[in-house]
């Protein structure tokens, strides 16, 4: 019978690797604790309309990358491709805005996008994300960017820069959109098919295209920075002042727009020295109203955890793999001992010790070999005679020294 393998674009995280992931997640959680950000968990799938309205029907995510299906009731559902829309839906549905604003929420969750798999880019990938909801303050933008940079700092990563821009608001962006369209009018035919299509829906996204023909056509394009209204100029200026006050490295890129329709004002990416993006985000003041809720201003970011691990690898930083070590390897000898040893096993574990037991029944020699293989500190040998006498043979695997101890003596010796 043919073997079944995992789907393309997914990965198995094996026991020796999951310790690295746990460390990564723990660092994210600890940074969030320092910034007083609380965790939120949303479903793996949502109604498709949520992402069409939230992300935008002209985005690559909606047009090309979503895993969408009909359930048995004929409802269109989509595996979560990004976290912001799902969090916004949860905030509105559960009326979290009734709590003291702003809300500061984080998630550690899998996301699903159908795209060509590559290094650090999987169809099921994992994101660490932050959503700060309920304030228009530029200081909130700075807070989110500072948290993103602190995350990488705590991981040990270096040489990272914030690249940022303002994409304006509903007041000033239409003017820039018109200026950009006029500039592109004689150049659009030389651009890629995607950009020709984008021109009718969201021409600003052409600025984000990496195709050489499109980059060439944009060399003299007008800058959105020149079209910002007074409010957006003031907001962006305060963001820059905040980053400078914190000493965070940054540069302004007038062509940075990001690929999601809900962004307003600040957008940013965290980039490596080679120009690779490791996380990104921005402000999205209109999303909550677009989803049928209150007008709640918000800002956030998402960081791919697979990409974070690759960054650490590229910079020669190692998170420890699972050493698969245990405190005690318990070896029952004889059929009676198989049952009689269970209270001993339970007592050791309740004392806070990591304990594995031998299941093989192949004898002492084979059991000791496995104890060595899994890096146990001591082997506890429970023969029938020793158990009757209330004793256990304790063998130090590093030195080979052994002695008979009671369970209480063993717990005292091991610090339980």
- Give me the Rg, rounded: 28 Å
Classified in CATH, the superfamily of the largest domain is: Bira Bifunctional Protein, Domain 2
| CATH class designation of the largest domain | Alpha Beta
Any idea what the shape is?
A: elongated
Integer tally of domains: 2
Count of runs of 4 or more consecutive helical residues: 16
CATH topology name of the largest domain, in short, is: BirA Bifunctional Protein, domain 2
Average residue pLDDT: 90
Helix content: 25-40%
Q: Mind telling me which CATH architecture of the largest domain this is?
A: 2-Layer Sandwich
Q: Report the structural category.
A: alpha+beta
Strand content: 15-25%
- Please report the distance between the alpha carbons of the first and last residues: 50 Å
Low-confidence stretches: none
- For the biggest β-sheet, the strand order reads 1-5-6-11-10-9-7-8
GO cellular component, one term: cytoplasm
GO molecular function, one term: transferase activity
InterPro entries: aa-tRNA-synth_II, aa-tRNA-synth_II/BPL/LPL, Anticodon-bd, Anticodon-bd_dom_sf, His-tRNA-ligase, HisRS-like_core, HisRS/HisZ, HisRS_anticodon
GO biological process, one term: histidyl-tRNA aminoacylation
